[in-house]
Structure formats: C-alpha cells, structure tokens
C-alpha cells in the first residue's frame, strides 16, 4: 500500500473500532490525511488527553476524566435515587433521556455463572453499602430486558431487601430482548416515568 | 452527558469521520474508553505521528510520511509507466489490485468549469513534464467512469499527444458510473490487464 509504516498501522488501528471495517477505516484515514490540521491533529490530541485522564468513578463506576465523576459530585443529583445500569453506554442513554435526575451505579456486566461473573465483580456489595451511606430511598433497576439482565435485577432486589429501600424497575417501553443503548431517547423517558415496583 | 469536557469533545470529533454518525461515534468512544491502554493510547499516538509526518509527494501527489513517496523512490517501479488517478483512494485501490508495477500521478480531482478546477490545479503540466523527464513510454488513464473523469481523460490525452507517449485506459471491468475505490481488487487487476489504447 501507500506507506507500510505509519499510515497502514493507523488504518489497522482504526479498523478495530466498532462500525468500521477495513474499507471504511481506509476511507476514514484518507479523510483524516486530507484534513491533517483541522481534524487529524485535534483528534489525536483529544484521544491522548482522554486516554490519560479517563478513569472509572470510585463511587458509581461511570467513566469520566475526574476521580469521582461529575454526576456523583453534583450536589443537586443527591436525590436519594440510584439508577442501576449494566454499562456506561446505558448510563449515557439514560442521561440522553433527560428524565432521571439522581445518581447511578454501573455494574459493568451481568451475573454469569458461565463467565464466572459474581456479585463482587459487579459491585453489588458496594451498591448495598451506598444505599445505607447515602440515605437512598429508591433504587431503579434499569437493566436490559434480557434473561441475564433480569436475573441480575432479581439478585440485586434480594440483596437490597434487608435495607427496606424501595426498588423499582423500568416498565413501559423497553421491548423484550431490547437493549437500552438502542432505544430512542423519548422511549427511555417514558419507561422511567412509568416505572413500577419490583 | 457523562462528561461535558473531554469525552463529549472526542465523540464530536469522531462523529466527523465518514461512516460514523453520532451513535456509532459514541459506541466507538466507549470501546476506546474501555481499551484505553491497548487501543486508545496507540491510536492517539499513531494519529499524532501521521498528522505530523504525512505529506503530499512532490512528484506524484501520493500521501506518505516521506517528502517523496516510497513508490516514487523505489527503483523497481521505474517501469516507464505512469498510472493517472483522480485521488489517493484510487491509488490505494490500484495498489491492492497488485497488478500495476509502475508509478502514479494523482490529479486530486477532475476538470470542472463549475468549481474552477483547471489543468494547473490537477498537475497536468507537471504530468507532461514527467513524461519527458522520466522517459515514460505509457500513461495509463485510470480515471473514474464518470462524465467528469472521462472529460479529464480526454483532456490529458490531448495534452500528451505531442509527446508521442502511448496512452491507454482501463477497459474491461469498470462499470459505467462506477468508482474505482468501490471495486473489488480482482476487477481492478482484470481491468488493468485488459487495458486498451485510447
Ligand atoms: Zn460517579
Ligand atoms: Zn510519489
């Protein structure tokens, strides 16, 4: 190809991104090569800065560029509600819905005997501790409507039962087998407003 | 969203790449955030290096990380053949075909009265000079099978007529209205092998 050193290596790296195959990675790199100053250099800079500064929030598991994420440090979000999500992608999807004003707990997956993912890996003991420590009144289980997601939701409900916190779950709007991150923002808002007790 | 500073700015930059909309840019950034060490940092590094070192070849217009590109400096490619292409993407497509062993001339576009793109902007006088300077025996016009591409091909053939160089064009395999960069590699090889005099 044009240049076996830098440019080909860059195409290979780009092709590892979701949604970009080898062909679209080549086209993306060509656009970058033609916009070296306006796009390629700023993108390199932004990636380098975020790669250095991004970290998992100690409290909720969200990814941000601060030790504790902006949602956990924002006083107005201490509403006594914690929304439990599987993944940061789901947290972002909830935020786009612009209905939930509380804080989050990002599990980072679901319980899986097959993959040896247990409650500790998902931070469930930490969630139980947060409910007491932060005076939480309601935990909203916003897990995907999949078998693993619902199994995990029931496990968390059982783990939280001794705390007497109210446990709710997204109700209306989440299609069977659907994943939060693919839902439109309005549907997520509707599902949150119509949440029901588990 | 999660972090109004670094991460959102990164998503906005990623969304400007071809093939990535806002949603796929978010998903790409999430994958990068989870693979900060293995993928995000190396990608930042590769982009920064290429942004600094990439340049247009003085001779042929190819983009590489050297002042004169590896194809122009490789002695074995002084075959007396120059392949004229519209864009670096087309040069890459030709190289993937692995049939052409000569050198290139990248026009960077096609003649267009509307956009005020004339022969000078496309380096056509420079191509005519190369034919004499490099002792070229054959110029292969590998332009897209579009009206603009074919108009430009005929203009170049006229400009080269006084040099008595043989002028050929890709024949078989390029569909009407088709663009080189979208062809499979085998078709490009076949079109090159079956090239005919213009
Ligand atoms: Zn947090
Ligand atoms: Zn060159």
UniProtKB/TrEMBL annotation, chains A, B:
<keyword id="KW-0863">Zinc-finger</keyword>
<dbReference type="Pfam" id="PF21175">
    <property type="entry name" value="RecR_C"/>
</dbReference>
<dbReference type="InterPro" id="IPR015967">
    <property type="entry name" value="Rcmb_RecR_Znf"/>
</dbReference>
<dbReference type="GO" id="GO:0006281">
    <property type="term" value="P:DNA repair"/>
</dbReference>
<feature type="zinc finger region" description="C4-type">
    <location>
        <begin position="57"/>
        <end position="72"/>
    </location>
</feature>
<dbReference type="Pfam" id="PF02132">
    <property type="entry name" value="RecR_ZnF"/>
</dbReference>
<dbReference type="GO" id="GO:0003677">
    <property type="term" value="F:DNA binding"/>
</dbReference>
<keyword id="KW-0479">Metal-binding</keyword>
<dbReference type="InterPro" id="IPR006171">
    <property type="entry name" value="TOPRIM_dom"/>
</dbReference>
<dbReference type="Pfam" id="PF21176">
    <property type="entry name" value="RecR_HhH"/>
</dbReference>
<dbReference type="InterPro" id="IPR023627">
    <property type="entry name" value="Rcmb_RecR"/>
</dbReference>
<keyword id="KW-0862">Zinc</keyword>
<dbReference type="InterPro" id="IPR000093">
    <property type="entry name" value="DNA_Rcmb_RecR"/>
</dbReference>
<keyword id="KW-0233">DNA recombination</keyword>
<dbReference type="Pfam" id="PF13662">
    <property type="entry name" value="Toprim_4"/>
</dbReference>
<comment type="function">
    <text>May play a role in DNA repair. It seems to be involved in an RecBC-independent recombinational process of DNA repair. It may act with RecF and RecO.</text>
</comment>
<keyword id="KW-0234">DNA repair</keyword>
<feature type="domain" description="Toprim">
    <location>
        <begin position="80"/>
        <end position="175"/>
    </location>
</feature>
<dbReference type="GO" id="GO:0006310">
    <property type="term" value="P:DNA recombination"/>
</dbReference>
<dbReference type="InterPro" id="IPR034137">
    <property type="entry name" value="TOPRIM_RecR"/>
</dbReference>
<keyword id="KW-0227">DNA damage</keyword>
<dbReference type="GO" id="GO:0008270">
    <property type="term" value="F:zinc ion binding"/>
</dbReference>
<comment type="similarity">
    <text>Belongs to the RecR family.</text>
</comment>
<protein>
    <recommendedName>
        <fullName>Recombination protein RecR</fullName>
    </recommendedName>
</protein>
């Amino acid at each position: 190809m044009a240049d076996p050193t830098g440019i080909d290596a860059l195409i290979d790296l780009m092709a590892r991104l979701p949604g970009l195959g080898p062909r679209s990675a080549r086209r993306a790199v060509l656009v970058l090569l033609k916009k070296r100053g306006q796009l390629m250099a700023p993108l390199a800079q932004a990636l380098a800065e975020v790669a250095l500064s991004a970290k998992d929030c100690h409290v909720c598991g969200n990814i941000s560029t601060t030790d504790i994420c902006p949602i956990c440090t924002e006083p107005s979000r201490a509403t006594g509600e914690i929304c439990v999500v599987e993944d940061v992608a789901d947290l972002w999807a909830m935020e786009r819905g612009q209905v939930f004003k509380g804080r989050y707990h990002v599990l980072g997956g679901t319980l899986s005997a097959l993959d040896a993912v247990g409650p500790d890996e998902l931070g469930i003991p930490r969630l139980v501790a947060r409910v007491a420590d932060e005076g939480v009144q309601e935990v909203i289980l916003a897990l995907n409507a999949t078998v693993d997601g619902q199994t995990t939701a029931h496990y968390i409900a059982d783990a939280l039962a001794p705390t007497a916190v109210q446990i709710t779950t997204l109700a209306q709007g989440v299609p069977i087998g659907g994943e939060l991150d693919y839902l439109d923002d309005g549907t997520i808002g509707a599902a949150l407003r119509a949440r029901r007790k588990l």
